[in-house]
Amino acid sequence: MSVERILWEEDATGLANLVRKGEVSAVELTDAAIARAEATRPDINATAEPLYDAARAKTVDPSLPLAGVPFAIKDLGIAIKGVPTHGGSRIPAWLADVNSALTDRYLAAGLIPIVTSTSPEHGLRLMTESRAFGITRNPWNTGHTSGGSSGGSAALVAAGVVPVAHASDGGGSIRVPAACTGLVGLKTSRGRIPLTPLVSESWYGMVVDHALTRSVRDCALLLDLTHGPDPLSPYAAPRPKGTFAAAAARDPGKLSLAVYRKSPLGLPISDETLKALDTAVALAREGGHTVEEIDLPFIGRDFFADFCRTVASAVAGTMRAEALRVGRSVAGDIERATRVLARFGELVSAGETYADLQRLHAASRRLIAETAQYDAVLMPIIAHPPLACGAMDPKGADDLIENLLDKLHLTPLLKLKPFFGQLMDKSLWFTHWPAIQNVSGQPSIALPVHVTDAGLPIGVQAAGRPGDEETLLSLAAQMEKISGWLGRRAPLMVPTR
Asked: Is residue 149 among the annotated active site residues?
């Protein structure tokens, strides 16, 4: 079997085992991954920065847990020393003079980064499209999105370039790409993986980092290798009872699960999404678990308005920091959608942001308390199958807001609320459930349970108790085994030998 075929068929754990046994070398895997990255690049456009020379020059100890496994790091959030970080933007890139703590942990595990992966500008859209890098496409159907904001990582894993890739999630940015590309994507508990030393937290603690993977066992093993605070971490998630890999390998026992079917914004949900959710429920029941229908009436439009205003204030602060870094205004560099959100964030007073956060925290406490009796809650990720590329262009709503901003300047936020509602509905029409767990800090795992008749994946998520990734990984591994989803692959450029 060719190395290209091995790369296509094996997950990261399997590849590392082959390297350890001497059946394939790290150099061979690196060369095969680079060749596939270049071959698929015109179709999926998922590479921000090639790291080919550094990857080929790297030597690894074959005894390391993921020795020689090709890897991608998202062009947003964490840094690789000396590699330009663009954040999907035309703002001049910055060069870090130090690795992020998470980057060092990836390298210590034996992973070999071959590229950085594309992101929408500053991770603000759930489709990976930017003026800086263009459209990143779905390997299942290149006319459709791979999701966002970790859409580049998702496309690379789904296309068989790498078996696992770094990703981050502030409002669904791991789980939405996983749902769009037939992958496993775990949004970790708040404080599980450090963001230091570049930042202590991002978006008021709502952003977390982990990965997109083909298999549950890879998701678990990589979490074992990267979790835990470093000396600069402001807080940490509870320690697991054992290893995450052991959790993924064991039977979960009989679990008590819930299912939440509604759109908290009252927006349409496609029949295919509901079919995917039904498939997940059926798999759970086949695994011996009880499933109870629930409602979450306190998670509604006010909750999401508070979330969106809070994000807008964070974006405004980020743009101020970027202007300070480059020594000038960045308004001419950034896309209209980013500019509108930042300008809206400037209108949100410090007092309003504080009040928004307090309401979000109160809703989180209620959510955690009222779902504590369940081991996990199943709910959708995307309301519709992966959208056609370009389908979520926000220009119309942006025009409304920007024209009003030009006239009102610092007029009270109250007068903008009707227009803000239009922008929120347009932005969240594709997906809105994932932000719930970013606010609450709970872990949630994307499960690739369904493929439509048109050949497009739709995943759903299982959200767990704070700090309890172990139960989610055990449940996900059982569902993976029952369903056989691990054998699914996107049809793009399948190796024939």
From this structure: yes
Q: Please tell me which residue in 58, 74, 100, 313 is annotated as part of the active site.
A: 74
User: Residues 235, 204: contact at Cβ < 8 Å?
Assistant: no
| Structure token pair of residue 455 | 């050949």
Mind listing the pLDDT tens digit for each residue in 298-307? 999 999 999 9
Nearest-Å Rg of the Cα atoms of the chain is 21
- The answer to whether 395 is a known catalytic residue is no
**Mean pLDDT estimate for the chain:** 94
| The amino acid at 132 | A
pLDDT tens across 82-105, in order?
A: 999 999 999 999 999 999 999 999
Q: Look at residues 367, 374, 378 and name the one whose alpha carbon lies nearest to residue 459.
A: 378
Of 117, 173, 189, 474, the catalytic one is: 173
Distance, CA of 159 to chain centre: 17
| Peptide bond before residue 385 is cis, with ω within 30 degrees of 0 | no
By the 10 Å C-beta count (0-12 exposed, 13-18 middle, 19+ buried), 142 is classed as: buried
Active-site entry in 89, 100, 149, 483:
149
What is the tens place of the pLDDT at every residue in 340-356?
899 989 988 999 999 99
- Separation CA 276–CA 448 (nearest Å): 9
* Catalytic residue status for 150: no
| Alpha helices for 10-46 (secondary structure H) | 12-20, 26-44
Give me the amino acid identity at 428: L
Instruction: Compute the Cα dihedral for 357, 343, 173, 394 and give only its sign.
Output: positive
Q: Which helix (H) or strand (E) holds 360?
A: helix 350-370
C-alpha dihedral sign at 420, 425, 426, 430:
positive
Enter the tokens of residue 174. 């791991």
Q: What tokens does 136 get?
A: 């990143």
State how far the Cα of 86 lies from the Cα of 266, in Å rounded to an integer: 36
